[in-house]
Amino acid sequence: MFSTGQIIFAALFFIAFVAIISFSYRKDKKLHKKNYKGVIWILVSFISFIIILFIIKYFLKN
How many Cα atoms within 13 Å fall on the side-chain side of residue 13? Predict the structure, then answer.
């Protein structure tokens, strides 16, 4: 399905992409802590909302 060259390119691209993203994240880590303080509560409330929707769906289905 894929040639050997395509697989090698995909693997190298993935490794380079992950390296660049992690380097950028480490560089901006202090800025992220300052600007995105409290964002974890938004994630928790979003996941709770999804779980509540599944619970409601389960009880209304039965």
Answer: 6
Instruction: Give the whole-angstrom CA distance, residue 23 versus residue 30.
Output: 13
Q: Whole-model pTM above 0.85?
A: no
Average pLDDT per block of 10 residues along the chain, 62 residues long: 94 98 91 86 96 95 80
- Write b or e for each residue in 8-21: b if 16 or more Cβ atoms lie within 10 A of its Cβ, otherwise e: eeeeeeeeeeeeee
CA distance 34 to 15: 29
Tokens read off for 59:
């009880």
